[in-house]
Amino acid sequence: MQQSHYSRAPRRRPRFAPRSHKNSPKSSAINPRRFTNKAIAAEAEIPYVPTHTFRDFGLSPQTVAMLDHIGYTIPSPIQDQSIPAGLAGRDIIGLANTGTGKTAAFLLPIIEKLSRQRSPVSALVLAPTRELAQQIDEEFRRFAAGQKLYSTLVVGGMNISRQIQSVQRGPHIIIGTPGRVKDLIQRRVLRLQTVSSFVLDEADRMCDMGFVADIRLIASELPPGRQTYCYSATMTPDVQRIVEAFMHDPITVSVIKNATNDHIEQDIIHARDKTHKIDLLTELLTKSDFEKVIVFGDTKYGVQRLSDTLAKQGIPSAAIHGNKSQSQRTRALTSFKRGEVRVLVATDVAARGIDIADISHVINFDPPKTYDDYVHRIGRTGRAGKTGTALTFVPHAPHAATDRSR
Questions:
Q1: Which CATH code is given to the segment(s) 27-44+259-395?
Q2: Could you tell me the pTM of the whole model?
Q3: Which of 41, 265, 277, 362 is 20 to 30 A removed from 392 (C-alpha atoms)?
Q4: What are the boundaries of each domain within the chain?
């Protein structure tokens, strides 16, 4: 009989509400049993019935025509509930995960405001990562097509001189990461006195990544009467303090559902050493059901070496990590999204904020350092009511290998 490489640890199914293990710096502190879970089918949800169509919001004819052209007719829950408040000028706390349509929920009211008053640097959007900022910029350009509204992307890892030139041209909206925006403010290149719309997207991740001080500095440069949008998957203490400090009488729109990952099949794979681990990974990635896979590694050097090793084994992959330029990361993500490669090898930081549909498997080649990191990683699969699979490599335990065919 063929031996399975998966462990069959006793199935005491854990609940997967994230718990912090920030005091446990080593990944070995996480009990491997926490990486196992027998998936259960996601409960059928009652379909959301929106109270509006995009035509009902009172958007400009140009915007409505563009939305019709790209197939936007029925708003998602976060769009349906927050766009009217955004158009009315209210501050909004949006509790929503990536992939719920929150980008359009704040961009469409901003575009409507910009179409009436085309002042330079009227809107500022902050995002935790280059990739997410770039996705927001792409969405803005798509939604505002033909309206002569201009954006500038200001993120690290790209030529700052070109960004300075672009800012000096007076775009209507600045989209960027906190570090680069702060840099341009301190260089006296970026002035924010005219900003009337301020967005914090994925505020909890920005706080987790250490951007609280940068956000506070940036907010101190904004006029007091601006409209503020704060979108977050969780209301952490840091996000709560930001809300209290920066927002005026906000309304809260929450579309958070299914806070557990019980619908994701989770298991561990025992490996004797690194060579054995690569052999097992290669074997897995040749299987037909591994259709679209993210492999997480610990370091940028390790991720690149692993991607190169897979290529030598005849498995093309794309790699994203901190040593990649923005253009290289963009090309890697594009090739993965288009299916030109089936495997994306990434570090945690590089992968934050990426929203890619239909991920069949997440593989933790290197175990995560904290359980919160684990929950974040595996949440890339099993989206939109679908099931997914997460596998985590752990050191070999001789007694753990069992025959799955029994």
A1: 3.40.50.300
A2: 0.69
A3: 41
A4: 27-44+259-395, 54-254
